[in-house]
Amino acid sequence: MADSSSEVWFYHLERSSLIQVLGDLLEKTLNRGWRAMVRVRDPQLMSALDEQLWTGRPDSFLPHGRADADNAERQPVLLTTQADNQNGAQALFIVDGADMGDLAGLDRCLVVFDGRDEAALARAREQWKQVKAAGQDASYWRQNEEGAWARAA
Predict the structure, then answer these.
(1) DSSP state, 16?
(2) Which three-class secondary structure state does DSSP give residue 120?
(3) 48-84 burial, b for 16+ CB within 10 Å, e for fewer?
(4) Rounded Cα gap, residues 35 and 131, in angstroms
(5) What is the mean predicted confidence (pLDDT) over 100-128?
(6) For residues 139 and 117, what is the distance between their CA atoms, to the nearest angstrom?
(7) Parallel, antiparallel or unpaired: strands 149-151 and 138-143
(8) How far apart are CA 17 and CA 19, in angstroms?
(9) Whole-prediction pTM value?
């Protein structure tokens, strides 16, 4: 984790599933004109996210692809287990407890974790400590009772 100019935002899931939140956040990222990379640890989760992003939102289309497929560098949203920024993303989404790695060249890193999972919560706390120790800007977001995101720290 090297670039102190990258903002790191932690999203604590308590009311919504990863796929519900991820779809909304990716849509907002694309609306900014940014490319996104979604880094996971588990290739099976990458496959599940790939399927859900194609079929899970009938009212909108999220153009995306996988790092292990052709034309990965052309994808507006890239699903990957790898550390390199193949598609020139400005936003990196960390899910499944994946490592952040080097944030150089990124505008924002978004760590999305399930607060109902003790291991995920512990991993996010460790990542928060690493970010703060590196002197990076970090913020913490929680959903309110209506499901809207509110900055808590």
Answers:
(1) S
(2) helix
(3) ebbebbeeeeeeeebebbbbeeeebeebbbbbbbeee
(4) 22
(5) 94
(6) 20
(7) antiparallel
(8) 5
(9) 0.93
Across 61-86, average pLDDT: 94
CA dist 130 to 127, 133, 137, 142, Å?
A: 5, 5, 11, 20
Taken in order of first residue, the domains within the chain and their CATH numbers are 7-151 (3.40.50.10110)
- Judge whether 110 and 25 are in contact, CB under 8 Å: yes
Q: How far is residue 102's CA from residue 68's CA, in Å, rounded to a whole number? A: 20
The SS3 assignment for 80 reads strand
127 pLDDT above the threshold of 90: yes
Q: Please give the structure tokens belonging to residue 140.
A: 């913490």
Query: For residue 142, what are the contacts with CB-CB under 8 A and spacing of at least 6?
Result: 12, 14, 149, 150, 152
- Check if the beta carbon of residue 13 is closer than 8 Å to that of residue 65: no
Q: Which residue has the tokens 């079929």?
A: 55
Locate 93 and state its tokens.
């989404």
Of 40, 99, 42, 98, which is closest to residue 64 (Cα–Cα)?
Answer: 40
H helices, E strands: number in the chain: 3, 8
